[in-house]
Amino acid sequence: MSVSAAHRAIEAVFRIESAKLIARLTRIVRDVGLAEELAQDALVLALERWPATGVPANPGAWLMTTARNRAIDHVRRRKLVERKHDEIGHDLDARQESPDLVAALDDDVGDDLLRLVFTACHPVLAPEARVALTLRLLGGLATAEIARAFLVPEPTIAQRIVRAKRALAEANVPFEVPRGTELAERLASVLAVIYLVFNEGYAATAGDDWMRPELCEDALRLGRILAGLMPAEPEVHGLVALMELQASRSQARIGPTGEPILLLEQNRARWDHLLIRRGLASLARAIELGGGRGPYALQAALAACHARARTGDDTDWAQIAALYAILAEVLPSPIVELNRAVALGMADGPAAGLALADQLRDEPSLAGYHLLPAVRGDLLRKLGRFAEARQELERAASLTHNARERTLLLERAAACGSIPPLPR
Amino acid sequence: MRVMVMVKATKDSEAGVMPTEKLLSEMTKFNEDLVKAGVLLDGSGLKPTSAGAKVQFSGAKRTVVDGPFAETKELVAGFWIWQVKSLAEAIEWVKRCPNPMHEDSEIEIRPLFEMSDFADASPETIARNEQIGRDIHRA
Q1: For A373, phi and psi rounded to 5 degrees?
Q2: pLDDT (tens digit, 9 = 90+) per residue, A334-361?
């Protein structure tokens, strides 16, 4: 095996093993930053040795044993130091739990992995820190990869991760899965982080790229892993269903020159039917577990209405409008109302949709949101009110930050005819 | 990237010899590991070719050939679809798979085409393909 082939193999092993390594090491040393360093040390050792010796038969076990031995050495040294301090009158920090060395040897690593998930998404961290730490510790992404994905300079991400680890250590965040009433709230935070990563990939918020598929794949992978770790949590399946169904359209939503194609104009033959099948199965699982009214499951159910329709004309808009009405109860938001307006416009005609959309015009959180004028513009166009439609679509174009979407909106505006915009 | 991972047929698999309880449980464990890692998207074992058929093309002519087929080692006995970061990752997972057969066997890994692989196709070609897709859908 050549050195570069060996390095590729080691990289692949590390990608498979790193989250498990870090999770288990964190349980021993009670510090994610230190755990990650120890895992990296084991990787460096593998990179030194394996090109000469060949990759061992069970590389995961090799890395785990190597890293764990170092972790145990570290804990012993620390205890020695603490004892010395104790002798000269220092108090041991009572909150410092004694590391669970024996138990950390053999039991299911899945439990540690889940603890790591909740630690990386802990509320003491800012949302962007949770995202960076989750991708780094659980997604196995390098700092440079995260920086590239989020179009942020590498030192910014590096610093974000360092600070996040320090914040976790300073807050003495216990390495555990929350229980009882706390669990629901904390799980929501975990799901939000994963969905944020997915959306960052699915709808690039800035720049000229419509989507960055790698991030979608990373988010999907994290979601699928979480579904394996928490199989009884309906919303985890709901989120996975939502992501699978949205990702199923990713190849159809970009045209030959990179321009976005709206859902109803997409070529459904290009939808990924494997992902649709997986998404529908996850949604069924979420409903079976009693989670049909969960916000992610409801959004997945909405995506499923489109996935099930063989053509755009077959879409069950009445069902979509009904689902949005439930979603508006569960998760009241002007954006949900705006989507309900679109569905009503399709189910009961553009006048019904516009009536609802018009109620949102004074909604402060939608001021500056390009989709409100975009939706109103389309409904006005269908009602034959072309001048107003054009003005709204142009306003939407001026508000979006995505260059491709702007082009699309301006084309739709132009299609309303060359009528000068009305004075405001 | 997605890969198709194909378990090649053997004399036993073509003869319809079912895997032992031990191999089945090892395979189940391996499949569970793939699911837990978020890698496994799809997969299935295939019945022996004696249960299948093939259609041969020569110009406008179609000839139906019933199984079983002769070239055992080239046949596929089962497949997975995996989502991985690289071919190296797929290789690493395959190395962890128990020997899927009771005799010497082989597993082949083939990356699927992705949209970016067609970046060189002209917009007209893509547009035509899309038109075909729409026509199929209306049919």
Answers
A1: -65, -30
A2: 999 999 999 999 999 999 999 999 999 9
Nearest to A29 by CA among A168, A142, A183: A168
CB B126 to CB A256 under 8 A? Answer: yes
Closest-CA residue of A relative to B39 is A221
pLDDT confidence of residue B51: 96
Q: Is B85 on the interface with A (CB under 8 A)?
A: yes
Beta bridge partners of B77: none
Burial of A180 (0-12, 13-18, 19+ CB in 10 A): exposed
For the record, the structure tokens of A237 come out as 């399946």
pTM: 0.85
The answer, yes or no, to whether residue A100 has pLDDT greater than 60, is no
Say whether B130 and A267 touch across the interface (CB within 8 A). yes
Which tokens belong to A392? 């709204």
The answer to whether residue B42 neighbours chain A at the CB level (below 8 Å) is: yes
How many C-beta atoms surround the C-beta of residue A231 within 10 A?
11
A4 touching B (Cβ < 8 Å): no
Chain A contact set for B88 (CB, 8 A): 8-9, 11-12
ipTM of the complex: 0.81
Residue B134 has pLDDT above 70, yes or no: no
- Distance, CA of A13 to CA of A58 (rounded, Å): 10
Stretch A224-247: mean pLDDT = 96
- Stretch(es) of chain A classified as CATH 1.10.1740: 4-13+15-89
Q: Show the beta-strand stretches assigned E in A142-279.
A: none
Find chain A residues with C-beta within 8 A of B41's C-beta: 274, 278
pLDDT digits (tens, 9 = 90+) for B50-71: 999 999 999 999 999 999 999 8
Chain B CB contacts of A221 below 8 Å: 37-39, 83
Q: CATH assignment of A4-13+15-89, given 1.10.1740, 2.40.33, 1.20.1260, 1.20.272?
A: 1.10.1740
- Residue range A292-319: average pLDDT? 95
**Chain A window 361-420: which residues touch B at a Cβ cutoff of 8 Å?**
none
A11·B127 Cβ contact <8 A? no
Least confident range from A18-32, A76-90, B10-24: namely A76-90
Q: Is the pLDDT of residue A206 over 50?
A: no
Contact state of A311 with B36 under an 8 Å Cβ cutoff: no
Q: Provide the shortest C-alpha distance from residue B36 to chain A (in Å).
A: 5
Residue of chain A nearest B121, judged by CA positions: A256
The answer to whether B115 contacts chain A (CB < 8 Å) is yes
Cβ separation of B35 and A8 shorter than 8 Å?
Answer: no
A278-B43-A228-A11 Cα dihedral, nearest 10 degrees: -110
Ramachandran quadrant class, A96 (left: phi over 0; alpha: psi -120 to 50; beta: rest) = beta
Domains in chain B and their CATH numbers?
2-138 (3.30.70.1060)
